[in-house]
């Protein structure tokens, strides 16, 4: 227990160092960096929706390098097949045996670009890996080393050649976030950095040094589990999830995976904020990022132009905070 508490105490310093190194290239998007860290510490996956040019890919690549872990990127296409992601066994004539060619999924950080370009059959290729940290190729099950985090992006404004994510796929993402363009101050900072020659990605990435490694991250994940949550906060998490199942405008409410995500995520958020205990604001900050991608509205609500974001905001506002 003592060792875990020592590890827990180091997490805020590591997070501060990561923010400092990321800030030398990334402008804004602090919430995305924080959510990525929450996902890393809680063993969860992240779905990011946003227009091109909002920094999604750069942030993930930089974070993977800072973590000192393996990184793979898969660019989705309509004709991508599950074997392109998971891998395939190939018969070798010389040895008269099958050899395994592992796909990009066998890594620590996997960036899936434009996941909604994958057909449902190919989307399903991620489900086993995201749920059980393993993949099955020709009946052979192969474990994926920890840490393992999938960060998928999708562009909401490209409809041609895209497919909605299947519900089983969306539910495997512990968190989601919608990115927007920078505000005026952020955009001005981008312009200044470009003018000063400080936005060279290759130079920045080559000079980026790790502050962690896989073993350290795994220890931090174990330490984060020791963060304390009072019983009344656990009841608050329950009430939020149950409210999505009882709301008249919601056809499909959040699953029990949402409850698990709120527990794990709030512990990670507390640790990153230098606390050994969860407070209500941890749960409230995470609630939209856990619930929104899991909700399906009633047809009448969609016709009335209600949005999932509005309804989740209503639920968070109405459920009594302990």
What does this structure look like?
With 322 residues, the protein is of the alpha/beta class. The protein is 49% helix and 16% strand. It contains 15 helices and eleven strands. It has a five-stranded parallel sheet. Strands 3-4 form a two-stranded antiparallel sheet. It has a two-stranded antiparallel sheet with strand order 6-7. Strand 3 (87-92) and strand 4 (97-102) form a beta hairpin. Helix 1 packs across helix 10, helix 11 (231-246) crosses helix 12 and helix 13 runs antiparallel to helix 15. The longest helix is centred in the N-terminal third of the chain and has 22 residues, at 2-23. The protein is globular. The chain starts with a helix and ends with a helix.
Mean pLDDT across the residues is: 87
Structural class of the secondary structure composition? Answer: alpha/beta
Q: Which strand order do you get reading across the main beta sheet? A: 2-5-8-1-9
Measured as a percent range, the helix fraction is: 40-55%
Strand content: 15-25%
Order of helices and strands: HHEHEHEEEHHEEEHEHHHHEHHEHH
| Number of H/I helices | 15
Question: What profile does the largest beta sheet have?
Answer: 5 strands, parallel
Oligomeric category: single chain
Radius of gyration: 20 Å
Ends distance: 29 Å
Quick gist of this model?
By secondary structure, the protein is of the alpha/beta class. It is 49% helix and 16% strand. α11 (231-246) packs across α12 (256-272).
């Amino acid at each position: 227990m003592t060792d875990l508490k020592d590890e827990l105490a180091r997490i805020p310093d590591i997070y501060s160092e990561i923010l400092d190194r990321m800030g030398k290239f990334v402008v804004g998007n602090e919430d995305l960096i924080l959510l990525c860290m929450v996902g890393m510490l809680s063993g969860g996956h992240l779905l990011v929706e946003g227009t091109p040019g909002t920094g999604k890919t750069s942030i993930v690549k930089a974070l993977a390098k800072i973590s000192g872990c393996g990184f793979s990127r898969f660019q989705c296409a309509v004709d991508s097949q599950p074997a392109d992601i998971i891998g395939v066994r190939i018969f070798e004539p010389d040895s008269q045996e099958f050899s395994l060619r592992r796909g990009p999924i066998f890594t620590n950080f996997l960036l899936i670009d434009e996941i909604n370009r994958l057909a449902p059959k190919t989307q399903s290729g991620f489900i086993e890996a995201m749920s059980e940290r393993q993949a099955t190729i020709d009946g052979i099950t192969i474990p994926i080393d920890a840490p393992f985090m999938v960060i998928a992006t999708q562009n909401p404004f490209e409809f041609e050649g895209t497919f909605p994510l299947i519900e089983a796929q969306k539910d495997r993402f512990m968190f989601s976030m919608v990115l927007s363009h920078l505000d005026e101050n952020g955009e001005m900072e981008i312009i200044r950095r470009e003018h000063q020659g400080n936005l060279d990605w290759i130079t920045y990435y080559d000079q980026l040094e790790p502050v962690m490694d896989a073993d350290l991250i795994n220890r931090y994940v174990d330490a984060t589990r020791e963060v304390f949550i009072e019983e009344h906060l656990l009841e608050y998490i329950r009430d939020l999830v149950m409210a999505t199942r009882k709301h008249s405008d919601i056809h499909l409410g959040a699953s029990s995976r949402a409850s698990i995500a709120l527990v794990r995520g709030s512990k990670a958020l507390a640790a990153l904020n230098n606390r050994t205990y969860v407070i209500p604001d941890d749960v409230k900050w995470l609630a939209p990022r856990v619930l929104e991608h899991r909700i399906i509205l009633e047809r009448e609500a969609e016709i009335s132009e209600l949005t999932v974001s509005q309804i989740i905001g209503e639920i968070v506002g109405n459920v009594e905070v302990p």
